[in-house]
Design goal:
Glutamine Phosphoribosylpyrophosphate, subunit 1, domain 1, alpha+beta, 6-stranded antiparallel beta sheet, 12 strands, 4-stranded antiparallel beta sheet
Length: about 280
């Protein structure tokens, strides 16, 4: 039997408009990100926890690929598992339908809550208010990016009480077809805090850094590289020893935010100004 993932709360969710699926989780457990979160674009998202059965992740995604619903996947997985009474599972399928399972032998407080496009669950919590906070925050943030919604849900859940045993690790996984690095990956965000006094805060810091390097500013908000701005950028690049924006951005890991020399992403401009000051 797998080692238990104790004192855990998580949310598996999707944004159907953006075609993104993801999971966010926090636990009093070392490196929770290697066990709980599973997701595949246009297939679904799965969180497996409590006395976790890691096979629920790949096996559940395989069932979702066969067009089984979230409810059918939950039923199939627990039916084949003799340890089901100690398991907790949340599934969101390709249509945004959610289903969950909390075994009767999970340690109190344990429970789940599902709604359109999300499944929120937790065990060994201070109270059910933690899961309520996950759900209510997710529902209230529909106008923001999925990753931001998941992080906000984690923060609200922790503020509502969180784990009765404290904090240790957290993870954020979001997938989108060809939405990752250089459009060659389906992994949009995959961040893990393995051991930290305040893992959710640290996860939020890493996500901010991730967005700076790999996020996308709408092209309408880019600035034309002409006149005084062109002269400033050229002067700063020369000061740093570069003859092109592409060359400098590649060294600074900002290449995903550069697209030719006619316009500049404001995030890139801010980074160039900071680096060359």
């Amino acid at each position: 039997m797998a080692d238990p993932v104790v004192a855990t709360f998580s949310i598996a969710a999707c944004d159907l408009h953006a075609k993104q699926w993801g999971v966010a989780v926090q636990s009093k457990f070392l490196a929770v990100g290697f066990v709980v979160p599973w997701a595949e674009p246009e297939v679904g998202a799965i969180a497996t926890q409590a006395y976790a059965n890691p096979s629920y992740g790949p096996n559940g995604l395989a069932l979702l690929r066969e067009d089984l619903s979230a409810g059918e996947v939950v039923e199939r997985l627990i039916a084949e598992d003799e340890g089901r009474d100690e398991r907790q599972l949340g599934v969101v399928d390709a249509s945004g339908t959610a289903a969950a399972w909390t075994g009767p032998d999970c340690n109190d407080w344990a429970g789940h809550r599902t709604g359109p496009c999300y499944s929120a669950q937790g065990n060994i919590l201070v109270s059910g208010e933690t899961v309520d906070a996950l759900a209510e925050t997710f529902e209230a943030t529909a106008d923001t990016l999925l990753a931001d919604r998941l992080l906000a849900a984690l923060a609200s859940a922790q503020a509502a009480g969180g784990d009765s045993r404290g904090e240790q690790s957290a993870a954020l996984l979001v997938v989108q077809r060809e939405g990752g690095y250089a459009t060659l990956s389906d992994v949009l965000v995959d961040l893990r805090v393995d051991d930290h006094e305040h893992p959710i805060d640290e996860l939020a810091r890493l996500y901010e850094l991730h967005q700076q390097l790999f996020g996308r500013t709408p092209l309408r908000d880019w600035l034309p590289l002409e006149g005084d701005l062109r002269a400033e950028v050229d002067e700063r690049l020369a000061r740093l020893g570069y003859d092109s924006l592409d060359a400098w951005a590649g060294v600074e890991n900002l290449e995903e935010r550069v697209n030719g020399e006619d316009n500049i992403d404001p995030v890139v401009l801010d980074a160039l100004r900071e680096t060359s000051s």
